[in-house]
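Lab notebook, bench 4. Continuing the backlog of folding jobs that were queued last week. Each job is logged with the same field layout so the records can be merged later without manual cleanup. Today's entry covers Argininosuccinate lyase, a 447-residue chain. Filled in by technician R.K.

JOB TYPE: sequence-to-structure
TARGET: Argininosuccinate lyase
LENGTH: 447
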Amino acid sequence: MKLWQKEGVSTAEQIERFTVGRDREMDLYLAPFDVQGNLAHARMLETIGLLTTDELTQLTTELNAIYAQIGQGQFEIEDGVEDVHSQVELMLTRKLGDVGKKIHSGRSRNDQVLVDLKLFTRDRLWQVAQAIERVFNQLVKRSEQHKDDLLPGYTHLQIAMPSSFGLWFGAYAEALSDDMLTLQTAYRLANRNPLGSGAGYGSSFPLNRTLTTELLGFEGMHVNVVYAQMSRGKTEQTALTAIAAIAATIGRMAMDVCLYNSQNFGFLILPDALTTGSSIMPHKKNPDVAELLRAKSNRLKALPMEVTMVLSNLPSGYHRDMQLLKEILMPAFDEILDCLSISEFMLEHLQVKPNLLDDSKYDLLFSVERVNELVLQGVPFREAYRVVGKEIAEHTYERPTQLNHTHEGSIGNLGTDLIVAQMKQALDGFGATRAQEAIRQLVGMIE
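JOB STATUS: finished
OUTPUT FIELD FOLLOWS
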């Protein structure tokens, strides 16, 4: 029987298929986190007298055994079992009988799935943060490596002013440091404990929600039990908004790679191992990796709106609509992690063309440098601007031979140390060490 099923009452097969949907498939993502939540809840039940010490020991032993099965890839949700929560409880009951049935005391499936989702989202967001850090480090490395390799700068896709590959790589590094702040916000919202909120209205048992908060390593709890349920959807939307911000950065960089790799620009070279060919044109080396990164990023950017539409016009409390959020959230983590991994690989192997600005077609890039030369000689800026414009029109303009950019964040002073400090500050703000240590202790991974 299902956790909610009554004696002698059954659901039509068509209704069950429609209402369960892909939930059992998505719930496999939640399995280790369901065990973690059960371990914390069981310890708390023992402290308030709803479990004996011996019962807690039995439950803890079996839950750790299930956790090991999950880690070894041996866990599955059996046919006819509705969800991961039912499967774990079924396994406990098979082993422990009535003791296994006690695990649900003081809890609803609502706060059970909520805590699972919070723990899952917290874990995956930290994985994304670590993947971003690896891409960031690659960008910083390439920025410093190519700080003296000049690159045409564009506005309106027209040549504008001199840039450098140091600036280009560094710009995306700093963009990721900003994205990390958005990710940190999502992490901290996921890092709040809903356990004990029941179906959204609490319990008459004297539950110790502070204890489960500490055991699971949460930063704090969702205090109001009604709001704890209302955080379903907000947590997913905030996480996906952070993913969308990262995807926007990665997608924009991928577009630059596509553009800069094309023959009409010719600023970057993708090695053969990073390109594909054409079935009809033997000369082709296509930047499929960058193109797919662009497409995948665009798709990820749409996901927060999907959540918005699912949540539209819902009153307070739990609604089955929210089940669909799993199908939006969970695969998104796999996708962004894959995109970040391939971005790191691409950045490591793409090649930069040196001496690009030696070509006379880029002479006008230095027109502002020529204006500034005159200003330094005492000519007012507006007059200097007019003079250089006249030189260009009359074909008497000659490009300056030197660049003098010294301020923070410019060609001659990338400010890499400041960008690295920003990223470190953002990462430190997660407070992830506390959560990881709590989970290690909870599942008995330290002596």
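OBSERVATION: The chain has two domains: 13-104, 109-358+415-442.
SIGNED: R.K.
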